[in-house]
Design a protein that fits this description.
Elements: E1 17-19, E2 23-29, H1 31-35, E3 40-46, E4 49-50, E5 55-56, E6 61-68, E7 72-74, E8 79-81, E9 87-90, E10 97-100, E11 106-113, H2 118-124, H3 133-142, E12 146-147
Antiparallel strand pairs: 1-2, 2-3, 3-11, 4-10, 5-12, 6-9, 6-11, 7-8, 7-10
């Protein structure tokens, strides 16, 4: 964990980037060494398509802040288009999802609190196609991701 008063900096292009297909995640601050798992901050960028289907998390909250583009966010009842400066907070247990319906790239800052080890979750998505349905279901549950059908 960072010592009291010690800052964490990251220059453009630095940090771990995870390719999730139509979106890429750049981890800005996460883990014991940076935030003491108090939060995880990541930048998501990508193109047109469904980034997530509606789902919930029981162990963490999420906040979304749009940097560029016009993604749509699901708040449990309606989809709302956002643009630069748009913010959405989702408490634990809150249904949410997001997608980019525009033909332009989108960039979003996402804050997970507490800082659950989401890097493992996003990195593991590349292996989903090799899992059985049961393995996939167990993997999502183990990673606090519950889809709404």
């Amino acid at each position: 964990m960072l010592l009291s008063g010690q800052a964490h900096t990251m220059a453009p292009g630095e940090g771990q980037t995870v390719d999730l297909g139509i979106i890429q995640m750049r981890v800005l601050a996460a883990g014991e060494a940076t935030t003491g798992r108090a939060f995880t901050l990541a930048e998501f960028t990508g193109g047109e398509g469904s980034w997530t289907v509606p789902h919930i998390h029981h162990a963490m909250e999420e906040s979304f802040y749009v940097l560029d583009g016009s993604p749509s966010f699901f708040d449990g009842s309606t989809w709302t288009e956002g643009g630069p400066g748009f913010f959405l907070y989702v408490p634990r247990g809150g249904i949410h999802g997001f997608r980019n319906e525009a033909d332009e790239p989108t960039s979003i800052l996402m804050l997970f609190a507490p800082g659950a080890p989401r890097e493992h979750y996003f990195e593991g998505m590349a292996q989903l196609g090799d899992m059985t349905d049961e393995e996939r279901r167990e993997w999502f549950i183990a990673n606090d991701n519950f889809f709404i059908e």
